UniProtKB/TrEMBL annotation, chains A, B:
GO molecular function: DNA-binding transcription factor activity; transcription cis-regulatory region binding
Gene3D superfamilies cross-referenced by the UniProt entry: 3.40.50.2300, lambda repressor-like DNA-binding domains
Protein name: Transcriptional regulator, LacI family
Any one Pfam family match given in the protein's UniProt record, by short name: Peripla_BP_3
Occurrences of domain HTH cro/C1-type (ranges): 2-50
Amino acid sequence: MKRKIKTMEEFAEVSGISRPTISKYFNDPESVRRSTRDRIEIALEAYSYRPNIFAINQNRKLTKTIGIVVPYLADPFFAEIVRLMERRCMDAGFSPMIFSAHGEQRLENDALAALQSQRPAGALIAPLGRHSDFDSVRHFTEEVPTVVFDSNVKVGEAFVGSDSFQSIPLIVDYLCRSGEPPCFLEMPPVNPNANKRRDAYTLAMERLGHDPKVIRVDGKGWDFERIGMDEGMRLISNKELPSETVLCSNDRLAIGFIAAAYQQGLRVGHGAGCALRVAGHDDHPWARFTCPPLTTVAQDYSAIVDRSVEKLFDLIENGRTQEERPEVLIECKLVLRSSA
Amino acid sequence: MKRKIKTMEEFAEVSGISRPTISKYFNDPESVRRSTRDRIEIALEAYSYRPNIFAINQNRKLTKTIGIVVPYLADPFFAEIVRLMERRCMDAGFSPMIFSAHGEQRLENDALAALQSQRPAGALIAPLGRHSDFDSVRHFTEEVPTVVFDSNVKVGEAFVGSDSFQSIPLIVDYLCRSGEPPCFLEMPPVNPNANKRRDAYTLAMERLGHDPKVIRVDGKGWDFERIGMDEGMRLISNKELPSETVLCSNDRLAIGFIAAAYQQGLRVGHGAGCALRVAGHDDHPWARFTCPPLTTVAQDYSAIVDRSVEKLFDLIENGRTQEERPEVLIECKLVLRSSA
DNA sequence: ATGAAATTTTTACTCCCGTAAAATTTAATC
DNA sequence: GATTAAATTTTACGGGAGTAAAAATTTCAT
């Protein structure tokens, strides 16, 4: 009959080890003598005690919590990034805590406040971007060691993200070589990336001696596919497309656009008999399952996660020694499928 | 010059109100006299103090945390459910905490342990199902008031989910009326739902006097689209499909299967000139953007979330008074698009 | 103004563990 | 076996707020 062990004091009794040593053990099992560790672990199996996390964190200035904040968790790009980050944090002995802003400034602020009240050791955040409450985000980063990823809001100790000025030329160049130069389909930008992509498109086209053609469609929120489809339907039926090659600002928009083309009876692809070529950006998890499979530029998910996490661990261990805020730009890769 | 307020004691000083009253205010602003509340709120704006969450939770047996645990957060079905649940919890004054098992038993156990150590007021969990460590999950639910959703593992105080024996006949009936009776495409079941759907299919077909044809394809993990596509390619090129109408166990599988059909040059749809009809189940957020748009049975996301959350709040307020574990089954709706 | 009811203040104890300092025990070295 | 170094035990305090009980104050109706 094993009595319920609630406190470290009680566990110290039943295990025959003093409380401070038990405490030491839980902070780092290697820090106690081998024989002691064994005795503790034997008792641990017999009584299954776990220290109270609130009491622990109350006395530690830095907890083992790492916050992960994304603008929209139901976006497969962020879902995947979060999945990878979570694992990396757990493997390193941290407890990741996930927050989503659900695309709203108020909720981003709430998330940051909730996270900050947890006194996390650090945070990995992808800000909303244009819709962020800049002061609020900055205030957060002043208190918590933070690596910003994806959307380069100028706060935090470091930034990790993809380089639009490398990725966009890649696909623009390919599209120009293989057919009619592309027009660029964008929606009102939700973050700095969207603007950079457009600018990179314009620059790339001009370099190649072509006339850039940007189509800005309306639409709010994070329903990118719906926007791509609705506006695609309109553009196609009104014959407003300035080119038969459409480069979409991101894959989700492209997925919607392809659906529109299909419903309008336009065959998408780079082969003969195709009326339209469509390309995207990001290599979303679902990009390979569109009809036809989407030609796109792949963001390097692993690299983004690895570099972000490494940088954060470095920050946590060595403090904010950095003179200037480093910006790590990660290369994208062209992924040729059959949509363009 | 506002000094930094760290403790409630200090805040009591600067606000001129006693600490116990401040404490009362933070637990429920309505519980103090109007004039007192105003004085506190004025001080609050001037000093921006927030109580330490660890100190708070240390003395409370039930926190304001609600855990949300799903088997795979990158699955859009769960991403969407989580999104809705999170909001409902926040609106009710709770702090939702999200966990994903990433499809692995070990990680599900880790998530439950991490959650339990937070002493949550309650939990909303969708267990892995067949891959769950049953004892571990049951142990969790014995300590934490829990509503189980989606996958009916027999633990917790209540279950909320869709009724496969209502939804599947709906689509089987439609498919039989409108063309060749469907075969059923499934992968090795990850949870009880998958089995129920197959059984419901068999039953529905027999009721209509047709011969049920179940195709079980291989594949592990949560890459449903990939499995659907790879196995679809094989089935189609080997001409192993027993029917021109394919009912997939879920939408993600269907999305992959449609991609396979497209790549094999088979036209999918219910119209003339189509070689194949494909239907799914769930109405995933992306189901409307396939080519052609997917005919499916829609799970009622809002209802699932609402009923789950209501039930949990009831549990939290009134304790576990329930004699028997209620199972709430929610109706699905047929969604006719053009894939079948 | 008076008495009763509702609030607030005072005081004090609790929650569970981190951690520092001094005293003691154990292990390692020659 | 004596010397030293390393680990453990003892003792004690602190962290920040919940909460109970008694005393003091405010509010409100009569």
